[in-house]
Amino acid sequence: MGWGGRPHGGAAASCGLRFGASAVQGWRAHMEDAHCAWLELPGLPPGWAFFAVLDGHGGARAALFGARHLPGHVLEALGPAPGEPEGVRGALRRAFLSADARLRALWPRGEPGGTTAVALLVSPRFLYLAHCGDSRAMLSRAGAVAFSTEDHRPLRPRERERIHNAGGTIRRRRLEGSLAVSRALGDFAYKEAPGRPPELQLVSAEPEVTALARQAEDEFLLLASDGVWDAMSGAALAGLVASRLRLGLAPELLCAQLLDTCLCKGSLDNMTCILVCFPGAPRPCEEAIKKELALDTALGHRREGCLNTVFWTLASEDIPDLPPGGGLHSSIYLFERDREHEQEGGAEGEGEADSLLSRQSHVGLQPQDPEIMT
């Protein structure tokens, strides 16, 4: 299991999967996101993997619990020989509900708090996406967005019907005028409607589960908390990720740059993302690398002066070969890197020795420690 604020990643050569993950606290007072990544699942053959992003509210406790314990509930529900696809879909629903029941048994009575969750379960034949709340997943296939989860908001027709049937109200687009999502782990104050099963409460922990048959054209799948999607559209994110993969960036470095781009675009939230790359992911392209190096050089000549002033001056210009989706916002790290380098007393004129690709060495791998999530 991988977890941590630093960018980290891993690969499973047997099934051609690679992943990277990164998280930032952003402008929030506390970090309430958590995530987990399992490239192998005990008791299941090679080719099964599990990833999840959880976005807590009212504290980090529920998100941390989910990151540590949701995989175990999934494994228990799957059993040693899960039937695909319907048996697995049912297992994921049961796993979310059983994890929520376990969390409730441990939760301090009367305390607020909960977490959204989006999870990817990979098998050799299918991609299973399970989500509750507004953390989101997106699949890129053959150069286009092939699937994206839909946020669980109180005004979605099915959600609104359940809320009203359970005696709840929606005010200011929020459940009881307070909660912006209608499905989550935790939030037990909204799960007290008498005589109703857990999946029919005001807030439900039942996930929406989608099974997608895998195809050779599958490129990558992005899981992220809502702060990422608030800053960039799915199409923009897909374009940015594909362009960075063509530069040969490791998935963990790509995730870190993606979050930097979202910060530069104005996201104020905690943000976490996991990028899962399949064998069909874009490969390094010599032409793309040459264009990026040329852009690096061109922007490097414009870095003098106040960073904010330089950025907004460049933003008004027509600069060729900016990264799709992210544009100049996704190149802001170039200026920050150059300033850090100058502050450290580095010599100028290092050229391609300090190129985009060599900067991958600045990202360390997070140790995989199954006890790190407490």
TrEMBL record:
GO terms for molecular function: magnesium ion binding; manganese ion binding; protein serine/threonine phosphatase activity. PROSITE patterns: PPM_2. Belongs to the PP2C family. Residues 339-374 are annotated as: Disordered. This is protein-serine/threonine phosphatase. Its EC number is 3.1.3.16. The keyword DNA-binding does not apply. The gene is PPM1N. Residues 18-278 form the PPM-type phosphatase domain. SMART domains: PP2Cc (SM00332). InterPro entries: PP2C (IPR015655), PP2C_C (IPR012911), PP2C_C_sf (IPR036580), PPM-type-like_dom_sf (IPR036457), PPM-type_phosphatase-like_dom (IPR001932). Gene3D superfamilies: Phosphatase 2C, C-terminal domain suprefamily, PPM-type phosphatase domain. It comes from the Eukaryota. Its cofactor is Mn(2+); Mg(2+). It catalyses: O-phospho-L-threonyl-[protein] + H2O = L-threonyl-[protein] + phosphate. Keywords: Hydrolase, Magnesium, Manganese, Metal-binding, Protein phosphatase.
